[in-house]
């Protein structure tokens, strides 16, 4: 009889060596890290503050607002939603200019896009999503369905794996108007096949809306080449845009003339300052905007997005894989014998930039880790997430955080 034993745990000096050879290591110095002893493994919920953002906000407050006052709208502010959208689109989303804009919260962006998509498929009565999708996505769809008398068809998949194209094919049909899924699962970090699922939905005549909240700034995606219709995502995670930062939305160029979003506001009107009666939509992606842009939030997003663009999404993805691979290696060696199981895909090609660990006492352990200077994230009922932000997370952070969990267990 052969007895198997877990692989020996990597020593901390292995983490030190990985940090020493990390090509993105210097980016951490460009963020505010007031407590170097704090192990922060929650960048997939809220990214750290870039030093450039602090300086840019001071300039925006003191000069653009304080000195230039109302003149700053035409000097700089009015074009920020599209300017930052193009930056994010080109550097991280595989989107040509004129298709991405910064707008409202993710929830409002999803509502706008979902409503516009349903209007574009009159007579169809079904919306497709999965039971493990992020709550706001599900709630928005349930709200739209209730308002319009439509049916939500639920995909019941593997909670660790991503929704597959064949599962979508079984759910869609001639009555499907819209499919809304997440590219990266907020729970397990599983990656869905954007291109394959988009093709399946299109074959059924439906439009597709992708949630990119855990994608942007961590995993490359090619929206244009995949034929994606619509997408939305937040900017306060891997883009380090700050709490409550405005989200972005993507509308494929070929749909922009036909789609009509439901919240008509003055910024989305043609010739905004004419103050004319009636609503005439602005051309292009600007028609998806509604009210006055949140300038301070926008400039914060711009600085975070610039850092990610400078690092390059391919380099960011490579480090995200290296971090999660190292985390899983250490967990297998020191946490698995203590009852912790991996709740993320093992294949790095099918995993985003966070790692989910399952344990019956996950909620308690998350709170106790925080008291010991290790910030992680809990997701009901039994998941502890390690958010590994490639621009700020070190391999030693991963080792120290997992070692702290080992000692608690």
TrEMBL record:
Which InterPro entries does this UniProt record tie to the protein? Answer: Kynureninase (IPR010111), PyrdxlP-dep_Trfase (IPR015424), PyrdxlP-dep_Trfase_major (IPR015421), PyrdxlP-dep_Trfase_small (IPR015422)
Which SUPFAM superfamilies does the UniProt entry name for this protein?
Answer: PLP-dependent transferases
Q: Kindly list the cofactors needed.
A: pyridoxal 5'-phosphate
Question: Which EC number(s) are documented for this chain?
Answer: 3.7.1.3
Q: Which residues bind pyridoxal 5'-phosphate?
A: 106-107, 134-137, 211, 214, 236, 266, 292
Q: What class of enzyme is it?
A: hydrolase
Q: Name one GO molecular function term.
A: kynureninase activity
Please indicate which superkingdom the organism of origin belongs to.
Answer: Bacteria
GO CC annotations on file: cytoplasm
Q: Which UniProt keywords apply?
A: Hydrolase, Pyridine nucleotide biosynthesis, Pyridoxal phosphate
What is one Gene Ontology biological process annotated in the Swiss-Prot or TrEMBL record? anthranilate metabolic process
This enzyme catalyses:
3-hydroxy-L-kynurenine + H2O = 3-hydroxyanthranilate + L-alanine + H(+); L-kynurenine + H2O = anthranilate + L-alanine + H(+)
- Listed pathway(s): Cofactor biosynthesis; NAD(+) biosynthesis; quinolinate from L-kynurenine: step 2/3; Amino-acid degradation; L-kynurenine degradation; L-alanine and anthranilate from L-kynurenine: step 1/1
Which residues are modified to N6-(pyridoxal phosphate)lysine?
237
* The keyword Hydrolase belongs to this UniProt entry's keyword annotation: yes
Instruction: Give the similarity note.
Output: Belongs to the kynureninase family.
How does it associate, per the subunit comment?
A: Homodimer.
Instruction: Supply the PANTHER family for this chain.
Output: KYNURENINASE
Q: What role is this protein assigned?
A: Catalyzes the cleavage of L-kynurenine (L-Kyn) and L-3-hydroxykynurenine (L-3OHKyn) into anthranilic acid (AA) and 3-hydroxyanthranilic acid (3-OHAA), respectively.
Instruction: Output this protein's name.
Output: Kynureninase
Its lineage reads: Bacteria, Bacillati, Actinomycetota, Thermoleophilia, Solirubrobacterales
Q: Which gene encodes it?
A: kynU
